[in-house]
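Try this one yourself first.
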């Protein structure tokens, strides 16, 4: 995945800050037009404007999930891999953030749990500083069990969370660019890139 210099903005005029993105998700669901169901809304009381056809690809519930990837990013871009609740109801919206890295802090790997609209969860997300180069391939994963999450990098546990969603999630992988953060290279807009060699889900016993 990459973002060429001439790619337009995502949600232009709606998203608070200018944002460009290239990403993929493993499922798709939205409620009826006018509802607040589905889609990880980024505004309070955001409504569905266009109903989408349902697609249920990879939607795991528990297990070991990992991605092997590398990212070419600068201080104006980032890469991320996260697992978001399908949101067939607004409460099923918790997010397991397996990794997110900004080019402005390339060794600070964000991971943990975002509660969003799930009242049973508590926000528990932070960065873990690791001696890695995100431009090289690394394996980022989570061991997801009822009531617990163990986050790994290259097979080593680096963070634990004592809570977890108890509903299926979709996998989301993306590279982002923030045009309001000036970072030109010889007068050119840099092209961020995310290369993935595999994504794997092993169901828990």
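Now uncover the answer:
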């Amino acid at each position: 995945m990459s973002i060429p210099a001439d790619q337009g903005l995502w949600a232009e005029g709606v998203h608070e800050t200018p944002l460009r993105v290239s990403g993929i998700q493993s499922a798709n669901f939205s409620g009826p037009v006018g509802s607040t169901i589905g889609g990880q809304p980024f505004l309070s009381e955001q409504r569905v404007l266009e109903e989408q056809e349902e697609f249920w690809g990879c939607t795991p519930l528990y297990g070991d999930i990992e991605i092997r990837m590398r990212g070419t990013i600068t201080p104006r871009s980032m890469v991320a891999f996260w697992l978001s609740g399908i949101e067939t109801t607004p409460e099923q919206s918790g997010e397991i953030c397996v990794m997110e890295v900004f080019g402005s802090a390339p060794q600070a790997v964000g991971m943990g749990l975002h509660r969003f609209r799930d009242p049973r969860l508590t926000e528990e997300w932070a960065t873990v500083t690791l001696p890695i180069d995100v431009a090289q391939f690394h394996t980022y994963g989570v061991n997801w069990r009822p009531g617990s999450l163990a986050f790994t990098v290259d097979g080593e546990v680096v963070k634990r969370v004592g809570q977890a969603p108890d509903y299926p999630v979709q996998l989301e992988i993306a590279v982002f660019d923030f045009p309001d953060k000036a970072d030109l290279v010889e007068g050119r807009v840099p092209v961020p890139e995310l290369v993935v060699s595999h994504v794997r889900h092993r169901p828990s016993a």
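Discussion: The chain has no helices and 13 strands. The chain has a mean pLDDT of 92.
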